[in-house]
Amino acid sequence: MAPVGRTDWAEEEDEDSSLQLPQQQITKNKDGTETITTYSIREDGKRVKTTRRIKKTTIKQIVNPRVAERKQWEKFGSEKGKPVGPQTDTTSVAENILFKPVAGWKSRTEDSREDEKKKNNLKDAKIKCRICSGDHWTTKCPFKDTMAPEGGDAPAEMGDEQPEGPGGLGLGSSSYVPPHLRGRTGGGEKMGGKFERDDLATLRVTNVSEFAEEQDLRDMFSRFGHVTRVFLAKDRETGMAKGFAFVSYADRSDAAKACEKMDGYGFRHLILRVEFAKKATT
DNA sequence: AATGAGCGT
Q1: Is residue A258 part of a domain?
Q2: d(CA A167, CA A182)
Q3: Where is the composition biased (Polar residues) (predicted)?
């Protein structure tokens, strides 16, 4: 039995607290700013007074005309009758956030000095081709296909148990295998002559949003078949996406399907352009 | 508009 004259206790408390809240106040300051004071109740029941100082800007300065007009609309719903502009108790007003990617943020910690040193050493180190003594890397040498490095017996490798790298590509005494050549089983590959990336099933995707990530592309493209590689071009200095990407498939037929379906596909307010890739850098 | 990165003697 409920005590006489008592309604639901929860209801009562609700009414109490909401009725006692003072109205929002706005005071104009001399410097042209305004101070807005609002009152609200937190989840734990505590009453909170919030003051904010804002600087008013002419609407024309900051928004396009359609948005400006929208700002003058009469409020509706639970905000009905409230004055124009954001009510700070229901709307949080934030500053514009500028997104500035920074290169090398990972190493910008206490031990970043060490990193700097290493970098400089690398930069100062002179490059001399072992084949022709030119100022390029041996691997970039125009004669590397026809000539062996001078001296023949290169400094003995530490781990001699591995006569050839995991890829078994037989690049002289070096066991290094560049990432794109690793783990190949040679499916229908002409092994004579130069090594070329298998771009037969690779699509070039352009007009890619700078906010896209490789995973986004993988998600979109893997419905057409097994995606073997996604490369999203980024500026190596800034990390900014350059707006194009490469997507490789295990099967060229899947690539063809994807090409047909994804060319013209809308992604993040941009229309993707998809076509088969031509050969890589020469 | 744009055709990829990686190692390092």
Answers
A1: yes
A2: 6
A3: 18-27
CA A121 to chain centre: 31
Q: Any idea which nucleotide's C1' is nearest the CA of A247? A: B4
User: Lowest-confidence range among A26-30, A83-87, A145-149?
Assistant: A145-149
Domain total for chain A?
2
Residue nearest to nucleotide B3 (CA to C1'): A280
Contact A134, A147 (CB under 8 A): no
Structural domain boundaries, residue A89: 24-93
Helices A214-221 and A252-262: angle between axes, nearest 10 degrees: 100
pLDDT for A219-272, tens place per residue? 999 999 999 999 999 998 888 999 999 999 999 999 999 999 999 999 999 999
Which two tokens mark A253?
């037929």
Residue A220 domain-assigned (yes or no): yes
- The CATH code of the domain that includes A215 is 3.30.70.330
Is there a domain that residue A86 lies in? yes
Q: Do the Cβ atoms of A181 and A198 come closer than 8 Å?
A: no
Q: Which two tokens stand for residue A279?
A: 């050969």
Smallest CA–C1' separation from A141, nucleotide: B9
